[in-house]
Design brief:
- The protein is of the alpha+beta class.
- About 45% of the residues lie in helices and about 10% in strands.
- The strands form two sheets. The protein has a four-stranded mixed sheet with strand order 2-1-4-5, sandwiched between helices. The chain has a two-stranded antiparallel sheet with strand order 3-6.
- β4 and β5 form a beta hairpin.
- The two termini are about 30 Å apart.
Length: about 240
């Protein structure tokens, strides 16, 4: 089961969506049959790499809201993220440009470290409020992912993997992606937004049945209470 995930590292619903996908794959029994590829998407391609604004300040400008309204909107998403043991630092998350981060993930894919780097980029942005536009911060995250800092630095100071990122963004336009997270399974089935966990599980099971992919045997989990977490939201680009 090939799963392509369009997302951005500053999209709060994308981190939730990533966790939902992981849990849905585990609970549906398809975790070992899934090949996950992350695709680039920019919520704000015009974001400066040295912005001094906070994320909710930019959101207020974009949505025509007051700072308090934008902050409360972000707090609402952060409250939902807690259900997945994600603790967003709403007060300090910066307005960041993610193009370099996307290029590094494309490079990390050639090193077998795409998944780990994606996770750490989201963790450092949302939970540590690190500015992932900054080259030194990006290189520190690369090292934490167990990847080569010097190779990553060479990527950042060149235009390597720029075309791969642009190709992902163009592909998103062609298939009608207007917001992220956006999941495409086996090039045939689309799941848009951070869907409720139970709905995601149901979708994977339906796709698996139609594609003839058998899930692994699952323990009954007797005595355990299953909980579903629900949102119909996603992050839209400019």
């Amino acid at each position: 089961m090939k799963i392509e995930v369009w997302s951005d590292y500053v999209c709060p619903f994308c981190y939730i969506g990533k966790r939902t996908l992981e849990q849905a794959l585990e609970r549906s029994g398809y975790a070992n049959q899934a090949e996950i590829t992350f695709k680039a998407y920019e919520l704000d391609a015009q974001a400066p790499v040295d912005s001094e604004k906070l994320a909710y300040e930019h959101l207020a400008e974009k949505m025509g809201q007051s700072l308090e309204q934008a902050k409360q909107m972000t707090v609402g998403v952060a409250e939902h993220a807690k259900a997945f043991d994600l603790n967003y630092d709403v007060e300090n998350m910066p307005h960041a440009n993610t193009f370099s981060a996307h290029r590094l993930v494309k490079w990390a894919e050639t090193q077998g470290g795409e998944y780990q780097l994606t996770e750490l980029l989201m963790h450092h942005y949302f939970e540590k409020a690190h500015n992932i536009s900054n080259a030194e911060i990006l290189l520190a995250i690369v090292e934490k992912a167990g990847l080569d800092r010097q190779q990553a630095a060479a990527v950042l100071t060149s235009d390597q993997f720029q075309s791969e990122v642009e190709q992902d963004i163009q592909e998103a336009r062609q298939i009608g992606v207007h917001g992220v997270p956006f999941f495409v399974v086996n090039h045939k089935y689309a799941i848009s937004g951070a869907q409720p966990l139970e709905a995601f599980i149901e979708a994977l099971e339906q796709i698996g049945e139609e594609e003839g992919v058998r899930p692994a045997l699952k323990p009954l989990g007797l005595g355990k209470k299953e909980t579903s977490f629900c949102t119909g939201d996603s992050c839209d680009g400019d």
